[in-house]
């Protein structure tokens, strides 16, 4: 979660849901702030995610791996992102994702 109450700055909320069936859903939502209130609070923007991804996950030593499935129509190969558990939080080993 990134929050900045100063006028004109972004606030972002990222979420990751790991389901027991081995699937995941990730999303990123956010918007500008005006006068200390988000645009959504002012009724000027929807709360719909700006980006979302789904795929599968698997446990690995010290964390999890997220598997983003191949999307041939977008020319995207399968992509695996490893996350390690540190101080009770998951951190990505590599923060780069392909465009798409």
- State the end-to-end CA separation: 23 Å
- The number of E-state strands comes to 7
Which blocks of ≥5 consecutive residues have pLDDT under 50?
none
Mean pLDDT: 76
| Share in β-strands | over 45%
- Helical fraction: under 10%
Rounded to the nearest angstrom, the radius of gyration is: 16 Å
Largest sheet: 7 strands, antiparallel
Number of helices: 0
How does the overall form come out from the CA principal axes? globular
Top keywords for this entry?
single chain, 100 residues, mainly beta, 7-stranded antiparallel beta sheet, 7 strands, 0% helix, 51% strand, globular
Textual characterization of the structure:
The chain has 100 residues and is an all-beta fold. 0% of the residues lie in helices and 51% in strands. The protein has strands at 10-18, 23-34, 37-38, 51-60, 63-68, 79-86, 89-92. Strands 1, 2, 3, 4, 5, 6 and 7 form a 7-stranded antiparallel beta sheet that branches. The chain is globular, with a radius of gyration of 16 Å.
């Amino acid at each position: 979660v990134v929050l900045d109450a100063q006028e004109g700055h972004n606030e972002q909320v990222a979420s990751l849901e790991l389901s027991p069936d081995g699937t995941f859903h990730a999303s990123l939502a956010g918007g500008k702030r005006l006068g200390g209130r988000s645009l959504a609070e002012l009724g000027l923007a929807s709360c719909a995610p700006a980006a979302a991804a789904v795929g599968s996950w698997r446990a690995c030593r010290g964390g999890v791996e997220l598997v983003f499935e191949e999307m041939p129509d977008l020319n995207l190969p399968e992509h695996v992102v490893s996350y390690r558990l540190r101080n009770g939080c998951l951190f990505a080993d590599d923060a780069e994702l392909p465009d798409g």
